[in-house]
Write the structure tokens for this entry.
Amino acid sequence: MELEQSGSEREAEISSEPGPRTVLVLGGGGMKGLAHVGVIKALEESAIRPDAVIGTSIGAVIGALVASGLGWRELSEITRRLKKEDVVAINRRSLWLGGIRSISVFEDRPFLGWLERVLPVNRFSELMIPLRVNATSLVSGEEVWFGKGCRRDLDLARALYASCALPLYFPPLRLEGDVLVDGGVSNAYALSQAVTWGAERVIGVDVGSDFGPPAEGFFEQGLVAMHHRVLALRMRDQRRDCLARYSQLPGIHIRPEVGHIDTFDFEKKQYLMEEGYRAAREALDASGWAGKTATATPAAGG
């Protein structure tokens, strides 16, 4: 495990290095974030390689794989092999009488084990592209950043788990008296961190949920459904404020049409990749950034 840098060491690192020119920001959104894989394909076709990556929740996972040096073909293969049981395992204690005192509906070990298996490296220092990922402290209420120029007192897999630990669903990560949960609780689409890092231009990929009318019978599904709805409401307002604040940020904004997909929908992986590709190609072509002609097959992983 990497030792945590002191505040002065982090400040020295930040001040001694220029900010990255092009930063890829991958937002959170549960399984909707598999659209990021299609975006990576479009970027590779256009010969665009980011100087740094920022990721939240599922965006942190895809971002770490990209920063490890994996291309869209490897990412699409990981996506195809991903099974629900790799991520979701019911915490049976939550089903017992008195289970409301359980800390989460799912267990942490399957998801953490999957992260450890698919990651090519174990430490932030081993990444080929600088990476930052966020979590949210339930102790301080503050956003916590791990990676280049930030905290590195966690191995990569546990930092990614913390960024993905959606409250109620997954157990939080406990770290030296702190309790860390999903970075999306505080900042699901971290354009602000790209500005902090000194980015000259940003490729932002927003895969947040749409907040439409719930399906019939939704509110009869119990406390988990109610909690999910409250989170979606918070994320909607957060997204809206973020986009309004950073509407003039240099770069491109990619919004795949995936907002209607459920957070834990494992059946639409191919659609998600293809939609990420379509949205990215459209945005790149409109921006003039595209350096190459798109391939004939418009399907991520095709």
